[in-house]
Amino acid sequence: MGGLAGCGSGAGSGGSGGVVAAPSTTPSATRAAAPARTSGRLPGLGPHTLAKVPEEARQAVVVTGKGADSSDSTVVLYERTADGWRAAGPAWPAHNALRGWTDDHRAGDLRSPRGVFTLTDAGGRLPDPGTRLPYHRSAAFVVNGTGFRGEPLAGSFDYVVAIDYNRVRGTSPMDWSRPLGAAKGGGIWIHVDHDGPTQGCVSLIEPHMRALLRALDPARHPVVVMGDAAALAR
């Protein structure tokens, strides 16, 4: 693989080298679920997870994995109102890391980190689609090669939102500072889906990435809440 390092292990958002993923459902625009109608607490989250959501957060991107070892997930953006949390749109199909989820992410483990993380910075190869987040456009947001299913990775970094795991907030997604050390990985992003599992990131098809970027508002202190469904319910 070549191009920009990113998505978990610093070597792109997918991989080859003989790793074979089990079949999983491909995200598509036609599979988006009907908008959820909810208020009060964030649905699907138990007290342990809810306690990690900052009080000042008014937007929460909830990434719910199908299973602890699954690369399939769904994404819903919630907004906090005077009446509690409500879904701002439908559930979007997504991918996460090839081997699922972990509470102790390590570089190269092919698992996405569970947790609650702030979302402060965005970027990509393509022009800013209208986000209010700081947006770093660069031709360096490229990745070459193929993913775990042999799918092309080109375009995966056309749009990215940096997940504030082991990175310095307020910097470009391409800043490779690792406050927790290199062994804890980094470069965990929400980026454009390439029709297969990632190394550690969360991926959405391009129209949903554009919609998410336009919706996120730093004044609302957005966070991502991510993990498999059983872990989030703790």
What's the mean pLDDT score? Answer: 88
Structural shape:
globular
The assigned structural class equals mainly beta
Report the end-to-end length measured between terminal Cα atoms. Answer: 38 Å
Can you walk through the features of this model?
- The chain is mainly beta and 234 residues long.
- It has three helices and twelve strands; from the N terminus they run αβββββββββββαβα.
- The chain has helices at residues 47-50, 206-215, 229-232; strands spanning 59-65, 72-81, 84-87, 92-95, 101-102, 112-113, 115-124, 135-137, 160-163, 189-192, 202-204, 223-228.
- Strands 1, 2, 3, 4, 7, 8, 9, 10, 11 and 12 form a ten-stranded mixed beta sheet that branches. The chain has a two-stranded parallel ribbon with strand order 5-6.
- The chain starts with 46 loop residues before the first helix and ends with a helix.
- Residues 1-5 and 9-39 have low confidence and may be disordered.
Q: Strands, helices and their partners?
A:
Blueprint: H1 47-50, E1 59-65, E2 72-81, E3 84-87, E4 92-95, E5 101-102, E6 112-113, E7 115-124, E8 135-137, E9 160-163, E10 189-192, E11 202-204, H2 206-215, E12 223-228, H3 229-232
Parallel strand pairs: 1-12, 5-6, 7-8, 10-11
Antiparallel strand pairs: 1-2, 2-3, 2-4, 7-9, 7-12, 9-10
List keywords for this structure.
234 residues, mainly beta, ten-stranded mixed beta sheet, two-stranded parallel ribbon, 3 helices, 25% strand, disordered N terminus
Give a short overview.
The chain has 234 residues and is mainly β.
